[in-house]
Amino acid sequence: MTAEELVLAQEESAMTAPEPVTLGRGRIVLRRFLRRKLAVAGLVILVLMFALAFIGPYLSSWNYKDQDYNNFLTGPSATHWFGTTQIGSDVYAQTMRGLQKSLIIGLLAAVLSTGVAGIVGATAGYFGGWTDRVLMWFVDLLLVLPSFLILAITSPLFHGRTWLLFVILLAAFNWMVTARMVRGLARSLREREFVTAAEVMGVHPLRIITRHLLPNMASLLIIDATLNVGGTIIAETSLSYFGFGVQPPDVSLGTIIADGTDSALNYPWLFYPAGVLLILTVMAVAFVGDGLRDAMDDAAGTASSTSTPGDAA
Amino acid sequence: MGAFLLRRIVNYLVLITLATCLGYLLAASSLSPREYFAQRQPPPPVASVNATLNQLNLNDKTPLEDRFAHWAKGVVTGDLGKTIDDTSVSAEMGRRMGVTLRLVLFGTISGALVGVALGFISAIRQYRPSDHTITFLSFLVLSTPVFLLAVLLKIGTVKINQAAGTTLLPYTGETTAGLAGGWFRHLVDRGQHLVVPTLSLMLGQAALFSRYQRSAMLDVLGADYIRTARATGMRRGPALVKHGLRTALIPMATLFAYQMGMLLTGVTFTEKIFGWHGMGEWFVDSIGRQDVNAVAAMVLFTAVLILIAGLLSDIAHALLDPRVRD
């Protein structure tokens, strides 16, 4: 089927790296990571983005909900750093709020979806048989339906409710590819001595999955969660662009860009700040994810890197 | 190979059926056509709303399984039901499908070709400035959501047109309204309209393909058979293209199927932003209109296209890799 072979290739590369957990591992990974200039640059940008998103709103006296009735569609100035919108909202305050929202939603949804992928994939891989077949078949089905379609169709369900529901749905349709990877890894780990030893001692299967299988895939899951952040941010902003995601009066980078699209030519400040921040964020995430992969991959030296920040959308 | 393909096709048909049913059930339970009518001014009487909803098979008071059975019975006979404005879904789909297919076709083909070429150049000139440039640009494009890319392209086109003082590249709609002239003039006009929207799809494709092609090609470069080919006196270029590229293309066949979902997501943004009246635009508008049957039609269309891409990739895989033909 569609992504199968692709995933298989990744499974293989993941299998060659059974991590020997030694004391100095964290430091080795850190040192390898710091040697990659792009990855470090990405990390710095990401930290700056988070700082901007959470400290930025306090630097200006405007709130994203405020309206300045003396300034409609004015350009950047000392009072309104990024100018104002048609209804007098402060673009700086809105952009900061939007960045905050997009970052939180992206981060939560990515972590959640990797968590689901880990549990489903490990369960399918460990138990095999019918559990495996049913779960993987479900994964196949969801791969045929792009998550964007499903999320757009179900968007009326979370209108007027908490945005956390949106996060849950975003994660609920984003875990399939990772689950396949985890499954492959779990199938090979299942044959290892320490798992057999645990089985002989009568350890409960669920405990084997949580204590023996998942910790052994930690690096795969960490890398995947990182790269997923870029994908979920793109998915969230894309849905929000059409009004299927974050609902007004709240804003996300997607809704800000949607509002600014039509006036982008004549009033560029409505459009560019959010656009630039969005691209920078997703790119920074991709660089960090790539750096982490290279740093954690014990078979380092393979120059291949196939990061795809745009997977989800 | 015949049996192999047949098995695949059966598998795909089952998946299409299930995906479409799932799409319908999701749409029917999350959209509320009643609201669409209730919000009209002046509000129509409840009885007449009920009558219309019943006629369109959209009444939320009818149990979901009954509505589903009614819809499924129609679909089996080729009738996709009525839109919320009481027109035929099948007819509307027929009008719009071609528009979307045109974008998808040109977008995929040009994107895959450019991406493979860039990835190939990138790999055989690894760590040279050209490699770094291609890598950076592909990261930049992949980090730009389609809606942002499309809007940026639109702005760029407007700037170019302004600089040229004439409409070099049109950027709204698929044809110029009321254009006079022969078929050739119309063909050129359609071609011109196609350029910018196709670009908005093609860039992402090219970036994605170039990343995968680069790493596949790098894996192949050090292979023994390339060295053997070189040892027989074959020059580097022909050896790389004839023996290297062919092997490195195999993973691309899989990627081709895999990215179809992404492309079909992207096409909704392209159509909305450039004003093309295709399936994607219809889908987005239909959700706003709580139009269950139209949304289900888009799910069917998407599932079919993704699985055709899957089938094509199976065939390409079998052609490129003799080991698959069992």
Characterise the protein shown here.
Chain B: It is a multi-pass membrane protein. Chain B: Residues 97-313 form the ABC transmembrane type-1 domain. The complex is a heterodimer of chains A (313) and B (326). Chain A is mainly α and 313 residues long. Chain A is 66% helix and 0% strand. By secondary structure, chain B is mainly alpha-helical. Chain B is 77% helix and 0% strand. Chain B is built from 14 helices and no strands. The longest helix of chain B is centred in the middle third of the chain and has 39 residues, at 183-221. The radius of gyration of chain B is 24 Å and the shape is globular. Chain B starts with a helix and ends in a 6-residue tail after the last helix. Classes of the chains: A mainly alpha (313), B mainly alpha (326). At the A-B interface, α1, α5, α6, α11 and α12 of A face α1, α6, α7, α8 and α11 of B.
| Name of the CATH homologous superfamily of chain A | MetI-like
- How far apart the termini of chain A lie comes to 20 Å
CATH arch. level architecture of chain A: Orthogonal Bundle
The first-level CATH class name of chain A: Mainly Alpha
Order of helices and strands of chain B: HHHHHHHHHHHHHH
Cα radius of gyration of chain A in angstroms: 22 Å
* Unreliable segments of 5+ consecutive residues of chain B: none
Number of helical stretches of at least 4 residues of chain A = 13
N-to-C terminal Cα separation of chain B, in Å?
6 Å
Task: Give the biggest beta sheet of chain A.
Answer: none
The helical percent of chain B reads over 70%
CATH level-3 fold name of chain A: MetI-like fold
- What is the number of helical segments of chain B per DSSP (H or I, 4+ residues)? 14
List how many beta strands of chain B DSSP finds.
0
Percentage of β-strand residues of chain B: under 5%
Mean pLDDT of chain B: 88
The topology string of helices and strands of chain A comes to HHHHHHHHHHHHH
Beta strands of chain A, count: 0
Structure classification of chain A: mainly alpha
Strand content of chain A: under 5%
Structural class of chain B: mainly alpha
